[in-house]
């Protein structure tokens, strides 16, 4: 026996069969329209057209599931004559019971209220009456089935909700529609029974089956390749919502408009940089891969986002590089305040994130070299504050780019930077290959006197305000004058005009001042009677370390008969290495090695034997290979590693995370701390940068246990140095000093976050890990941008929403963070502005309760 149950008539419903006196259901596995035709024929119901409806559209049955894998040819008179299997075990469930509609009248489908027959509100005809389709949980796959059934183009479709084509009337025939996407008819999709939903007409579903891309234009800019993005649909121009808009989307727009720049760069500009638009917001939630030729090919929502307003209209600038760059108000054309030219107008560059790598690229682009430690940066308007536009900001380079335009940056006309934060740069001179040449004058002998340097053929004195013994040692070595004995200040060797106002930050072991970090003081005044001077020993060094990373590590060479020669490996050990390091003022020896391959060239010494306490290598027992230097390519060379080359290495200890903890530096083969007095965020920024730990979040003091070495005090970083050793400081190596509090740093890479109290890891109360413990985050000022950053960082989609207080339980102290204001460019919570960590007046009701768009990730 066979029957249809749960429908409005005997010719529609859930398929049930009677076997051995018991009614049971049929599994929908492999069920086809041919099976449905056989059922309708057996029941004497209309056989054409028919529809098979799967997944318990007429409600789940009860009892035994008798049949599965039913396969009919369509010609059978009884279902029992088709091929089938008797259901065994738990392979099929009642949620998979098959249903059938044997309709005497074809259901019809149409789109109404749109500009063509291929767009509009979805309506279906059932039993002679037209009705609508509920748009709740209406998806792109459902829209694709509608377009296919109507014979419309479904390559670029858009599902539209919320009665975008106006609310319908009458019955709402279909609800809870869930299509796979390959069905031939809408009513073949999983759905509720006809007219059984609890939907309202304000939620009627709509569809746009697009046959052609929309027109694009950019409005409000200076050219046709920049401005507010507008699209034309149904003959009407409208804007695009900037929510989730990124650089890839901007690149597609520029490509479509034929505005691609030389480097293929594009910039997205939000927040009505070109003024708010008017009329409809046609597109929202646009997501491109970046390879599309047309914006219409990207994923998008038509008719806009009801939560988007014209103040969020997106803008685009199709421009990849400034026309020119130059340096102004310096002593030469290779130093000064950095300016870029865009659209015929010169403007400056904001110093946010500017460092040595960025300066290197600027120097290279201008043909000014990069020998001053890959380009030297000078901030804070050292060459005088500029005026006019600040064109570029947030420039971040690797140092290998050929132009600034190839670096990551915000373009153009950034308004969050002041002229006092503009960038200045000092490069080497393009003509001499050096930033300057030095000499000592007015001294009693060649190796003493006032320090002077030449710029553009003009000699001037160096300001003594920031001149120290480390820089003086480097200059003495550079001039072949041994080491510095003293640095008389106050115009000891007389005054000289002009005075070049520069500050050198040297380790003291460099071979040339060009290897020190230099900050140009620009127009700042140098105190009268304060030119730099030095008195050197006058004896040039007779040994050096070459082919290493610096002056204090490498292969040993000695000067003999005015020729540099090699030293061979006979009897070479740490005693000899100790003497070499002492003579070179490079600290302690931490390694004595032999090269695997000979360097080639002349051999100076055949062997060296030292006691280890000699001041100079010449005081050791030396064996010279013959009366003159002998060329050989068979013996191996010796090398030395001194502690100074490895001094001031940085690490964080007593930590839960590698990027947070007590700061320690390495000196003389031992780790020691930095004094906690005076350390600030600028010092922390350099430490975090050197450790590849992002940006600084907090710098504080920590009580020390025991008696650690105090290696560094009075640290005073500018904030743009790449490593700690480039920072100024008061004293280094005062290991016997007593220290009670040392410097502690927390960097942004420690910003771990989580959602707790929800059904899965993509919903719940927001907590961050800080200062060794998890704490709550409050929702004040939290916008959709902030929630998007949080969800992305958690790998929970690209958007979410704030839920009501206590949705996921009661938050608790500590309250680490509040007043978060993320922007679209931010990629993690650590990059977003906020109130200071741990300083807020939150309450449990203000704890952020967030649900991301992916409430449960696949595993």
TrEMBL record:
<feature type="domain" description="SRCR">
    <location>
        <begin position="753"/>
        <end position="853"/>
    </location>
</feature>
<dbReference type="Pfam" id="PF00530">
    <property type="entry name" value="SRCR"/>
</dbReference>
<feature type="domain" description="SRCR">
    <location>
        <begin position="438"/>
        <end position="537"/>
    </location>
</feature>
<feature type="disulfide bond">
    <location>
        <begin position="72"/>
        <end position="82"/>
    </location>
</feature>
<dbReference type="InterPro" id="IPR001190">
    <property type="entry name" value="SRCR"/>
</dbReference>
<comment type="subunit">
    <text>Interacts with LGALS1 and laminin.</text>
</comment>
<feature type="disulfide bond">
    <location>
        <begin position="778"/>
        <end position="842"/>
    </location>
</feature>
<keyword id="KW-0964">Secreted</keyword>
<feature type="disulfide bond">
    <location>
        <begin position="791"/>
        <end position="852"/>
    </location>
</feature>
<feature type="domain" description="SRCR">
    <location>
        <begin position="650"/>
        <end position="748"/>
    </location>
</feature>
<dbReference type="InterPro" id="IPR036772">
    <property type="entry name" value="SRCR-like_dom_sf"/>
</dbReference>
<feature type="disulfide bond">
    <location>
        <begin position="179"/>
        <end position="189"/>
    </location>
</feature>
<feature type="domain" description="SRCR">
    <location>
        <begin position="109"/>
        <end position="210"/>
    </location>
</feature>
<comment type="function">
    <text>Binds to extracellular matrix proteins. Binds to pathogen-associated molecular patterns (PAMPs) present on the cell walls of Gram-positive and Gram-negative bacteria and fungi, behaving as a pattern recognition receptor (PRR). Induces bacterial and fungal aggregation and subsequent inhibition of PAMP-induced cytokine release. Does not possess intrinsic bactericidal activity. May play a role in the innate defense and homeostasis of certain epithelial surfaces.</text>
</comment>
<keyword id="KW-0732">Signal</keyword>
<feature type="disulfide bond">
    <location>
        <begin position="506"/>
        <end position="516"/>
    </location>
</feature>
<feature type="domain" description="SRCR">
    <location>
        <begin position="543"/>
        <end position="643"/>
    </location>
</feature>
<feature type="disulfide bond">
    <location>
        <begin position="822"/>
        <end position="832"/>
    </location>
</feature>
<feature type="domain" description="SRCR">
    <location>
        <begin position="216"/>
        <end position="319"/>
    </location>
</feature>
<keyword id="KW-0677">Repeat</keyword>
<feature type="domain" description="SRCR">
    <location>
        <begin position="2"/>
        <end position="103"/>
    </location>
</feature>
<keyword id="KW-0675">Receptor</keyword>
<protein>
    <recommendedName>
        <fullName>Soluble scavenger receptor cysteine-rich domain-containing protein SSC5D</fullName>
    </recommendedName>
</protein>
<dbReference type="GO" id="GO:0005576">
    <property type="term" value="C:extracellular region"/>
</dbReference>
<feature type="disulfide bond">
    <location>
        <begin position="717"/>
        <end position="727"/>
    </location>
</feature>
<feature type="disulfide bond">
    <location>
        <begin position="397"/>
        <end position="407"/>
    </location>
</feature>
<feature type="disulfide bond">
    <location>
        <begin position="581"/>
        <end position="642"/>
    </location>
</feature>
<keyword id="KW-1015">Disulfide bond</keyword>
<dbReference type="GO" id="GO:0016020">
    <property type="term" value="C:membrane"/>
</dbReference>
<feature type="disulfide bond">
    <location>
        <begin position="610"/>
        <end position="620"/>
    </location>
</feature>
<feature type="domain" description="SRCR">
    <location>
        <begin position="325"/>
        <end position="428"/>
    </location>
</feature>
<keyword id="KW-0325">Glycoprotein</keyword>
<feature type="disulfide bond">
    <location>
        <begin position="288"/>
        <end position="298"/>
    </location>
</feature>
